[in-house]
């Protein structure tokens, strides 16, 4: 049996983007298997007040630009032109500005259903990408030159490179023989959209509270996306508040910097269970997206880190005659190690760092914020790293 091209299990944003990037880098064919139907119809032009969204860094926008997707994405996205970072109850504020980096924007926030539609639409426009959705994989069998996958209908696909993109509880990762560490940190993330009284002007706000970080991110049409993480009992209390109480609590915690909030949409929560695969590459196999790592949502780094992983993987194997060779995959894994370690460490340590209440440490922490604001060099370096530009 001659092997086909790479086979990706999981048709979410990570899997769909990887399929497009593999083709962009010269892969002759790709198969994508997803258990749920994929969105093939454009969402309504009027945005949903309760829609979920994703913050994309400048580096992620560059990747989408390579695929010709940036212009249509920006039609329904809000640019991030400025980021304010502060600490509740303390002096000290740092600002990150697009102009400092000679960029048109630091990033953009887009509703997931629009980003998903753009990716899926691009998949179906490429005849060399076989999309099997809804479909599933029943079993995987290792052979001498790859894997043979048994699909739900009993048919088989032979692939030289099996890619797990099916989430934090990935069954494909198990088939590859890769284990994962999971840590429930006892906090939940609360997500909602809010309406603002005046235009946000592309400003985003990250506020470190005693009980966890809170972010407000710009959305189109005078809306902002709220992401707050904290202990589960406090999230219980927030979920039980009526809208007026929730808005009052937000105003008290965010301070005077953001625009006044006038309405809050449906609130959602999800537990923060951090996942880290013990490896991301084995012979004829790779692990990406949430199957590889899930992070604390502080600074919105999770999906953006995955985008950098995907772009590097596609570049490493897209034009290779034997994409599943361990030499290619090990080189990719090694090249991504430093960036992954920095982002993982920062996402875990920042919330804890800002929660420490000892006076001396709290004072030095605020001096750190002031130093970032006053010294353009360190601020630029930190921001460019967070944006995936170095």
UniProtKB/TrEMBL annotation:
A Pfam family it matches: FAD_binding_3
Top-level lineage group: Bacteria
FAD-binding domain segment(s): 7-317
Keyword terms of this UniProt record: FAD, Flavoprotein, Monooxygenase, Oxidoreductase
InterPro entries: FAD-bd, FAD/NAD-bd_sf, UbiH/COQ6, UbiH/COQ6_monooxygenase
Family according to the record: Belongs to the UbiH/COQ6 family.
Protein name per its UniProtKB record: Oxygenase
Organism of provenance: Alloalcanivorax balearicus MACL04
Lineage: Bacteria, Pseudomonadati, Pseudomonadota, Gammaproteobacteria, Oceanospirillales
